[in-house]
């Protein structure tokens, strides 16, 4: 039986991540500040990649992703009726939350173009959405930050607008040498709206 992941807010010891390669886990998003899940919170079933991908850190469930999932569930990170992109998705927990209970219109979960990462991510999407048939459309795609952004935006080609209303990222800024590439992807893929910001200096994306 899959292990239940502790609440992102609970426990005296705050572990930064959970799980081992190949482990099956279940996470229930929490209301922010709550000690436990709401009885109606969805159970999101995820499996970690089999290989210990230490250079990419996709073999764990990271607390930042859990907190982002909680924020989406609670409405603090509002993705209702939005085209949503997750970069560096790993297990895809925030993207799955956006699709299952966040009210998103369409969700794309991306990570580095590695077979084991993408296979685990696709399996998590299939498994979770089979348990929750009333969900937003969600697709998985490879994306290396700063490269071939058109391949990602093309996934919205049949939709309007053709850029994403919200981009989710959790535990993606710890590697400073990747910041420029990450900002390049965000700047290219985030819709130009009055509230849009790039992370480097929070300047508006509008011209």
TrEMBL record:
Protein name: Nicotinamide N-methyltransferase
Top enzyme category: transferase
A Pfam family it matches: Methyltransf_16
GO biological process, one term: methylation
Origin: domain of life: Eukaryota
Keyword Nucleotide-binding attributed: no
Gene Ontology cellular component list: cytoplasm
MF-aspect GO terms: nicotinamide N-methyltransferase activity
InterPro entries reported for this sequence: Methyltransf_16, SAM-dependent_MTases_sf
Entry keywords, A to Z: Methyltransferase, Transferase
Keyword Hydrolase found: no
Organism: Malassezia brasiliensis
E.C. number(s) listed in UniProt: 2.1.1.1
PANTHER family, alphabetized: HEPATOCELLULAR CARCINOMA-ASSOCIATED ANTIGEN, N-METHYLTRANSFERASE, PUTATIVE (AFU_ORTHOLOGUE AFUA_1G17750)-RELATED
CDD domains per record: AdoMet_MTases
């Amino acid at each position: 039986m899959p292990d239940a992941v502790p609440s992102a807010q609970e426990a005296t010891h705050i572990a930064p991540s959970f799980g081992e390669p190949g482990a099956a886990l279940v996470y229930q998003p929490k209301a922010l500040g709550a000690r436990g899940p709401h009885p109606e919170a969805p159970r999101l079933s995820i499996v970690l990649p089999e290989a210990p991908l230490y250079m990419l850190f996709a073999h764990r469930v990271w607390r930042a992703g859990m907190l982002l999932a909680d924020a989406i569930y609670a409405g603090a990170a509002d993705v209702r009726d939005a085209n949503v992109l997750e970069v560096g998705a790993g297990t895809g927990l925030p993207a799955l939350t956006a699709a299952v209970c966040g009210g998103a219109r369409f969700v794309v979960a991306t990570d580095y173009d590695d077979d084991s990462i993408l296979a685990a991510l696709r399996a998590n999407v299939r498994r979770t959405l089979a348990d929750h048939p009333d969900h937003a459309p969600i697709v998985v795609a490879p994306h290396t930050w700063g490269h071939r952004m058109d391949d990602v935006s093309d996934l919205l080609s049949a939709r309007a607008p053709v850029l994403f209303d919200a981009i989710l990222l959790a535990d993606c800024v710890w590697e400073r040498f990747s910041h420029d590439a990450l900002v390049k992807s965000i700047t290219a893929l985030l819709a130009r709206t009055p509230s849009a910001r790039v992370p480097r200096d929070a300047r508006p994306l509008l011209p």
